[in-house]
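anyone seen this seq b4? input:
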Amino acid sequence: MGRQFSHLLGTIGMLVVMLLWLSLLNPPKADRFVNGFAGARHEYKIVLGAALLAALFSLVAAIRGSKWWYIGVALSSGTLAFFTHSLSI
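predicted toks r here
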């Protein structure tokens, strides 16, 4: 796997993290968007899956690309923890 591909994965991971945090600004619209994918009963799977995917992409970018991506790993792991906690309540 090349460095450019690793950086691309990291960038995609950070875009997913940004999308998750921006969804908190307009929850009704984000709720309708996610319900279109999985339905009202399974929307938490989409949110947690996206956060887990972002953490995985950032980790791959940190290992293969640049050590600066560890900041992205911390951000995506924090996002995963926040959304896991808020969906479990």
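The chain has four helices and no strands. The radius of gyration is 14 Å. kinda curious what u guys think
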